[in-house]
Design brief:
By secondary structure, the protein is an alpha+beta fold. It has one domain: GIY-YIG endonuclease (3-Layer(aba) Sandwich), CATH 3.40.1440.10. Helices cover 47% and strands 24% of the residues. The protein has a three-stranded antiparallel sheet, sandwiched between helices.
Length: 97
């Protein structure tokens, strides 16, 4: 069972940070209104960032660190993660002379 620290974007544009060992189940719980009081009134929510962690303690420490970041730094984390995904998803082309 691996743990992740995650960030959600709520329908009102705010960000929520948490941890889980089952991201799909946790997202469903958030969108059902049964996961966190904060997200309950800001539905729907979607994942915008996830970071794998070694164990629950590491995930909790990372969550605490991310929650202390200013919004601009959180948006930077999201942008960096998005850029990495986009770069790795692009098809590799071979140059022909």
């Amino acid at each position: 069972m691996s743990w992740v620290c995650y960030m959600l974007e709520c329908a009102d544009g705010t960000l929520y940070t948490g941890i889980t060992n089952d991201p799909d189940k946790r997202l469903a719980a958030h969108n059902a209104g049964s996961a966190a009081k904060y997200t309950r009134t800001r539905l729907p929510v979607c994942y915008v960032w996830q970071e794998p962690c070694a164990d629950r303690a590491a995930a909790s420490r990372r969550e605490f660190a991310v929650k202390r970041l200013p919004r601009t730094a959180k948006l930077g984390l999201i942008q960096t993660a998005t850029s990495r995904v986009e770069l790795s998803d692009k098809p590799k082309t071979s140059e022909q002379p």
